Amino acid sequence: MRYSFRGMARVTGIGGFFFRARDPEALNRWYARHFGVLPIESRAYDDPGWFQDRGETVFSAFAQDSDAFGAPEKTWKINFRVSDLDGMVARLRVAKVAVELHPEPYPNGRFAELEDPEGNRIQLWEPNAASIARDPASRRRLGED
After folding, report:
1. Residue 43 has pLDDT above 70, yes or no
2. In this predicted model, which residue has the larger pLDDT, 99 or 131?
């Protein structure tokens, strides 16, 4: 099913991702060091957040018994788009972060899986040309929309 929101108020993106951690300062440093996701250190409104490149974001609920999140008490997983999956996996492995590269590509790109130090699941995704071509802005530039 396809929805149209032209001319209507709508969500334009994810403005933040907030979650509890046993050691928030250490976990914020881990995400900054390995992924460049910069936390707002002072929690002041003048501090810049993390500015993302334009790209597809998937938003989807999963069944309660899904194993996609690791341990049963974990209720979320984040997917980061990456420009060079092999390079990211190599850099993580050099840093002694366990990461599993999916053996085969999918119709929308390539993936890898890992966990942060508190056991939260992270998926890395390198979109392929077919995925990038779905971007409505790309179609508008090409006169297709």
Report:
1. no
2. 99
Q: What is the mean pLDDT of the chain?
A: 86
Between CA 127 and CA 133 the distance in angstroms is 10
Nearest residue to 100 (alpha-carbon basis) of 110, 113, 87 = 113
- In the numeric block, which tokens belong to residue 117? 């130090």
Residue type, 53: D
Cα distance between residue 21 and residue 120, in whole Å: 10
Range of the domain at 56: 24-141
Contacts for 2 with CB less than 8 Å, ≥ 6 apart: none
pLDDT at 18 over 70: yes
CATH number at residue 118: 3.10.180.10
